[in-house]
Amino acid sequence: MTHSSRPSITRLRKTPSQARAEETVESIIEAAAQVLEAEGLEGFNTNAIARRAGVSIGSLYQYFPGKDALTVALIQRETRRFYDDAAAALTQRSGKAALEYLIGASVRQQLQRPMLAKLLDVQESSPALRGEVEKVEFDALVVAIVRRVAPRFEHPEVAAADLLAIVQGLTDAAGERGERDLESLEHRVRAAAFGYLSRVARRGKHSARAGGM
Amino acid sequence: MTHSSRPSITRLRKTPSQARAEETVESIIEAAAQVLEAEGLEGFNTNAIARRAGVSIGSLYQYFPGKDALTVALIQRETRRFYDDAAAALTQRSGKAALEYLIGASVRQQLQRPMLAKLLDVQESSPALRGEVEKVEFDALVVAIVRRVAPRFEHPEVAAADLLAIVQGLTDAAGERGERDLESLEHRVRAAAFGYLSRVARRGKHSARAGGM
Amino acid sequence: MTHSSRPSITRLRKTPSQARAEETVESIIEAAAQVLEAEGLEGFNTNAIARRAGVSIGSLYQYFPGKDALTVALIQRETRRFYDDAAAALTQRSGKAALEYLIGASVRQQLQRPMLAKLLDVQESSPALRGEVEKVEFDALVVAIVRRVAPRFEHPEVAAADLLAIVQGLTDAAGERGERDLESLEHRVRAAAFGYLSRVARRGKHSARAGGM
Amino acid sequence: MTHSSRPSITRLRKTPSQARAEETVESIIEAAAQVLEAEGLEGFNTNAIARRAGVSIGSLYQYFPGKDALTVALIQRETRRFYDDAAAALTQRSGKAALEYLIGASVRQQLQRPMLAKLLDVQESSPALRGEVEKVEFDALVVAIVRRVAPRFEHPEVAAADLLAIVQGLTDAAGERGERDLESLEHRVRAAAFGYLSRVARRGKHSARAGGM
DNA sequence: TATGAATGAGGCTTCATTCAT
DNA sequence: CATGAATGAAGCCTCATTCAT
């Protein structure tokens, strides 16, 4: 289940063997996040990132073979943070509670880091980055949750993808508008998610579902 | 709530007073659309657009004060096309039918023009473009529909924004995955939209709604 | 017998359609030659070349897709100049006179433009440039001369390559030493060239020659 | 004619006083040779050399004050190897045999180590390296050989330089073409060398020679 | 007005070299 | 002494924009 070791844009150029190096790598990724947040995609360039990280541009390129690699590393970090939070969903008693937990994690994440969505979009439009980001684990999590809330869905991956899109669409837009009321937002996201699940089954062949819910 | 008439990046440099000029403007915008579709954001640059439009880069700058203006013009055109299609929703008998119509228009639009979403994202991240795009009319349409489907909502603008986010989130993700089955997609979007509306009311002060549905 | 139209590093990016453009291209190549002569390979960079040409770096890249293309263009120009001079060798009455003419051209060329040799070496060591330069015509010229001086050689291409190597080796080294006495140099080069031709035949299968000279 | 003892780029930073240090120096030079052979001039950089030598970049700079010094050291080593082989020429009975031996050594060297030629060219074009390489000994060898083959030459240094140029020009070109037939190549080089010597005398003041051969 | 040549700020990246550990 | 992380000058190239013709 390990990944193939094909040469990847993503890989670090050198594995940091000293503590200092690891800190540098971390500080660069963090700086990238901050630059993105503060300056937007317009200001997301390697010089600005190095400057904010307090390292030279040379150091940045010691660890990342290129800008894309850094972008991917940032996406990975954010995705992993989200995943690490969201994975606790599976410890919930019921499927419903699991999905609610996932939604809560999503909302928290989005309102803290509204930048991830934009990054992901850019990533998708850059041919070089396609397929570099590992979504597998994450998708699997959502599918697992779907299976618990709605065990008889024929295509849980479709429902999982839809749920993700609903949750992210709503939270992104809310973040965009500067909405800060977590409770209200979470309530509305739940409405959409559970509403989707309870209704998507009502039709025949096109439905994501095979049986009752 | 009308816009001030401050000098805007968006405005065309000259009002095309002759038919030929208007054609040129149109051809440039169309070329921009084609370049975006064919080359992605990577290839979306003024020289490429001028080349594809069959005009000189100089002419492009005769009609648009800058790249941002052209970008905005393209967004406006696409938004208007969508609006012109979606506006027919209001001619439907029932509110339900109106919302269904809107969803249908959204799905059609998205699967035909998957580029709009990306453009809108860039636009949001570019400070220069913020607020240049007229969404007012469009938002008003969705609010009007919401009022018809769920007349007693306290904050129909919130529900309208949410519905838009749900619909676009789902269709964008579907487009991204290359999904082509309109019927299935539409069914699932309806599930999410109507599910949202029917459930969002169930709570007190945080809800977007004041009364029953 | 035309060359395939595969995308080549060599091609100009745009065919200059205005007189000014053509001048610019010419001035850039000439500047490249001057920079190489004055600063050596160390100083042979695009910024220096643009500066000396009196154009912006942007203009350089309007016409040359990259540094390699410019390098190749320079090599082509120098090769062509040499060729245009050397081609008159074929108008000489005898084969001997033809070879002498070729040697004279070589010596003149080398002492005027000692840079070509260096460039050719760079070209050979840069994988990107391999095969971009057309030597065909030139090689054909030398082979034709060899056929006239020594009609019975079995492998005139080998002899041609050897003669070229001898002539260039001697003139390069002389240029390197700063030798300026054309007459003496030419005499010695003739000695080597004709000495080679008259002696190379003396052995069996390994010789470049089949019969008497 | 002796060299001044000005501080030289070339000198090692520290005289390796211990066996281990000497080994390190040797391994770095060997690594430089391998990198040059394997990656060409493009890949000939200090970090790559240190990596291949299995030492840190810091150590490399402990032993060499800079890249140029390392380059020169490599050239010296190769030159010395050649010299050690070629010096046996002087043990030959006749001058003819001596020159033949020299040619044989040249051909062997070139076909085994085609990289030296390229390095020498770079060295010549880099002002920093000019004059750093000791050729004296080597030149003296060739002059000595010339004196034995053609004792009455007025300017044996010129003839020596020419012979070197002929031999290297031919072998370099052959190496470039990938020629592997030593015997044939050697035959042709002899033809050029002896042809040169026998013919260069035939003129008056410009000749490299004063009397008969 | 149309053209397209020209501009140059600014982004990405490399690599020789230094220096703290 | 060895290490390798860090540095930054310098090179390559792009693309939004201007301006002479």
Largest sheet of chain A, in brief, is: none
Shape of chain A: elongated
Q: What would the average pLDDT of chain A be, to the nearest integer? A: 84
CATH architecture field of chain A: Orthogonal Bundle
Structural class of chain A: mainly alpha
Given this structure, which CATH class of chain A is correct?
Answer: Mainly Alpha
InterPro entries (chains A, B, C, D): Homeodomain-like_sf (IPR009057), HTH-type_TetR-like_transc_reg (IPR050109), HTH_TetR (IPR001647)
GO molecular function, one term (chains A, B, C, D): DNA-binding transcription factor activity
Protein name (chains A, B, C, D): Transcriptional regulator
Domain HTH tetR-type (chains A, B, C, D): 22-82
Please specify the SSE layout and strand pairing.
The structure is a homotetramer of 213-residue chains.
Chain A: H1 19-39, H2 46-53, H3 57-63, H4 67-86, H5 95-112, H6 115-125, H7 136-149, H8 156-176, H9 182-199
Helix pairs in contact in A: 1-2, 1-4, 4-6, 5-7, 5-8, 5-9, 7-8, 8-9
Chain C binds a DNA duplex (21 and 21 nucleotides) through residues 14, 16-18, 20-21, 24, 45-47, 55-62, 66-67.
Task: Walk me through the structure.
4 copies of one chain form a homotetramer. Chain A has 213 residues and is mainly alpha-helical. Chain A contains 9 helices and no strands. The longest helix of chain A has 21 residues. The N terminus and C terminus of chain A are likely disordered. Chains in contact: A-B, C-D. At the A-B interface, helix 6, helix 8 and helix 9 of A face helix 6, helix 8 and helix 9 of B. The structure holds a DNA duplex (21 and 21 nucleotides).
